[in-house]
């Protein structure tokens, strides 16, 4: 034996010995919170620009406090308010515009993904007086700009509490379950346009603009709730499936002084996904979309006479995305994001809606807009110009000059700026570094202080068998796709390993990202420690690589994405250390739709698949999401049916585990039941599990532990 061979074997033995001394991650640790990271919860800058507030909470005894900190010293200045006998534990807070009062949420219970009911209090900071808004749980309370009133929704109607007079006025009276909703969104708007409060105070508190949803003609959906009583009952709500009727949504203007409500004529738009007041208290901006969501109009409504004029119109052959980046400057010129040039970038428009200039440009995407420092003419934003798996923080002038990279570490950076843009707190993580919080100067990104770094978690993980997440690209179907791979810590290139792939694959999504681990990453580490190679490939249709890459899957959801996963599995299986006879794939929601299709259409490539809460026909999913990418089933029947897995169950050859929660209000268990019936009638054997009353997240108590134990055992038995 030569010296080099001896040295290699010696080092391999040392590595094996070292690895053997380390603990392996367990499912109980993952779902018991053993690897939980510390964060800075609900951080907000004060108007003075020199201080910020944080919501601090404790589990035992359960308590909460709203604390004020100094940016320069990072020291706590004062506790503004803390839970006590008078004020129950609160889980969120909102200041009035003048910061004289703060709204506190207690006894909060979820309705759907974003919506909540709760008991709310208004705390007067100067007098330390506390006012309960309502004895009944309400939705979406918001203080008027001067803090003298609170508007909120109760039982689908809009109300206003006058804190000075201690009187409550009911603004609307026609709200009722299943028919009329005032001031909050219906199910599909909440889920797909991602907002709940559908009313806004203007800047001087004289007007409230609100949306009214008439969901009378929206098809009725119900699902059984099994509970713990003798009889189950049905949970009922309106859910518009693809091609069906949506709510009729209208815009209205309430005058606070007179109590009058005026209707605003927007020429019958199909969707109204955003309303936002401009700085002028009489000007309201309104965004509307057609049903195909490929024609967006930005209107301005004059609240004096409710006249309407158009500021901007944007069209796309596929669809136009809705976001919250629209920002009005002091003169009501505005910043807008658009994919007009093929990548998502920032644009500056005048008060009249005329384009002044494109602010950012290049073959990369702006991923977040942070704000505008008018004093120094600096726009702050986040982008992927340092690589599509990374996020960096930058500043630039409105003319597109003087660009500065403020973040320096490669990974995922995000920023929370002080209100005067003197400071920002940077949150950084990467695949190898848990979240770090640092204070910086906004002018040049200079590091001022380290705040929190999760070093205790990193030290704890030193005792565990953790394999690095290796990033690369893989050329599939003519595209260089982002990929990561996790190999066992004691990887031996001379051995062959089973390949287990993970993906989501939905339009504009990203799974291959240089950020710290989530629960699934820890589970993938567990699988790697048991001898599996885990890989993830972001195929065509995913995000942050330009408009054309993202929108290539238009009208064909599940076609190109499945082709890419099958081709990636085949190409990876050609590697000497991959056992091509042992290839599996899994995913959740859209990822479950994908893993099911991969196992069927790629039945000579994949030997097993796990699908959690999958869509099995886009005909069953909601209007806004589905029609954005597919148009309606009436217009595009083959696009819906050619990639619906229960239409070809006879293709199943491998081992298949199908999982769903019976209380899933988002992807209904109907999807899984139809898949089950198709497989049964095709006489195909498979495994399945239904979690009673669990929603799309399938969690609560030991549910996640049970689910991941089942999935782990299924992998060990079948891969």
From TrEMBL:
It comes from the Bacteria. This is Dipeptidyl-peptidase IV. The keyword Protease applies. Residues 96-435 form the Dipeptidylpeptidase IV N-terminal domain. Keywords: Glycoprotein, Hydrolase, Protease. The lineage of its organism: Bacteria, Pseudomonadati, Bacteroidota, Flavobacteriia, Flavobacteriales. It is an enzyme of class 3 (hydrolase). GO terms for biological process: proteolysis.
């Amino acid at each position: 034996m030569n010296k080099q061979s001896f040295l290699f074997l010696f080092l391999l033995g040392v590595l094996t010995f070292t690895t053997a001394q380390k603990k392996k991650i367990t499912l109980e640790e993952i779902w018991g919170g053993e690897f939980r990271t510390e964060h800075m919860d609900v951080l907000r800058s004060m108007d003075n620009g020199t201080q910020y507030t944080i919501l601090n909470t404790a589990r035992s005894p359960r308590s909460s406090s709203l604390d004020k900190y100094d940016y320069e010293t990072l020291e706590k200045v004062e506790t503004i308010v803390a839970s006590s006998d008078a004020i129950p534990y609160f889980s969120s807070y909102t200041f009035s515009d003048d910061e004289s009062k703060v709204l506190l949420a207690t006894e909060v219970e979820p309705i759907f993904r974003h919506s909540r009911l709760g008991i709310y209090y208004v705390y007067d900071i100067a007098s330390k007086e506390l006012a309960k808004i309502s004895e009944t749980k309400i939705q979406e309370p918001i203080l008027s700009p001067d803090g003298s009133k609170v508007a909120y929704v109760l039982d689908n109607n809009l109300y206003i509490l006058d804190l000075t007079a201690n009187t409550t006025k009911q603004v609307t009276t026609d709200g009722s379950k299943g028919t009329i909703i005032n001031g909050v969104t219906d199910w599909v708007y909440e889920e797909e346009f991602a907002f709940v409060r559908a009313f806004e105070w203007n800047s001087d508190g004289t007007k409230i603009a609100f949306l009214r949803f008439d969901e009378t003609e929206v098809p009725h959906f119900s699902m059984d709730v099994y509970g713990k009583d003798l009889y189950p009952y049905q949970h009922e709500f309106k859910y518009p499936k693809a091609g069906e009727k949506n709510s009729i949504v209208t815009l209205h203007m309430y005058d606070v002084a007179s109590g009058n409500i005026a209707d605003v004529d927007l020429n019958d738009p199909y969707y109204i996904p955003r309303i936002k007041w401009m700085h002028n208290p009489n000007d309201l901006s309104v965004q509307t979309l057609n049903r195909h969501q490929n024609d967006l109009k930005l209107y301005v409504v004059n609240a004096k006479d409710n006249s309407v004029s158009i500021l901007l119109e944007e069209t796309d052959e596929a669809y136009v995305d809705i976001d919250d980046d629209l920002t009005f400057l002091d003169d009501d010129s505005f910043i807008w994001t658009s994919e007009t040039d093929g990548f998502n970038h920032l644009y500056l428009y005048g008060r009249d809606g005329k384009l002044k200039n494109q602010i950012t440009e290049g073959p990369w995407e702006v991923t977040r807009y942070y704000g505008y420092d008018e004093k120094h003419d600096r726009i702050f934003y986040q982008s992927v110009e340092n690589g599509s798996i990374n996020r960096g923080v930058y500043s630039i002038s409105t003319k597109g000059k003087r660009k500065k990279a403020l973040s320096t570490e490669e990974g995922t950076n995000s920023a929370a700026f002080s209100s005067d843009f003197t400071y920002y707190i940077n949150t950084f993580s990467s695949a190898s570094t848990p979240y770090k919080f640092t204070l910086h100067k906004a002018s040049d990104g200079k590091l001022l202080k380290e705040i929190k770094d999760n070093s205790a978690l990193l030290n704890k993980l030193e005792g565990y068998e953790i394999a690095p997440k290796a990033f690369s690209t893989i050329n599939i179907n003519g595209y260089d796709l982002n990929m990561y791979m996790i190999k066992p810590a004691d990887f031996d290139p001379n051995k062959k390993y089973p390949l287990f792939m993970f993906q989501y694959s939905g339009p504009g999504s990203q799974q291959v990202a240089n950020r710290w681990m989530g629960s699934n990453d820890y589970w993938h580490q567990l699988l790697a420690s048991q001898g599996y190679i885990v890989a993830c490939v972001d195929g065509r249709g995913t995000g942050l690589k330009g408009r054309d890459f993202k929108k290539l899957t238009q009208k064909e959801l599940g076609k190109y994405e499945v082709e890419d996963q099958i081709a990636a599995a085949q190409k990876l299986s050609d590697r000497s250390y991959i056992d091509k006879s042992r290839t599996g794939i899994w995913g959740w929601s859209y990822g479950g739709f994908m893993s099911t299709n991969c196992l069927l259409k790629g039945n000579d490539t994949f030997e097993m698949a796990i699908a959690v809460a999958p869509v099995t026909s886009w005909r069953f999913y909601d209007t806004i999401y589905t029609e954005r990418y597919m148009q309606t089933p009436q217009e595009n029947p083959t696009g819906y049916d050619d990639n619906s897995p229960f239409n070809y169950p006879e293709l199943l050859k491998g081992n298949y585990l199908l999982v769903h929660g019976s209380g899933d209000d988002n992807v209904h268990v109907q999807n899984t039941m139809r898949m089950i019936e198709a497989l049964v009638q095709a006489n195909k054997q498979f495994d399945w599990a239904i979690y009673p009353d669990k929603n799309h997240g399938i969690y609560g108590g030991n549910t996640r532990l049970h689910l991941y134990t089942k999935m782990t055992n299924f992998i060990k038995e079948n891969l």
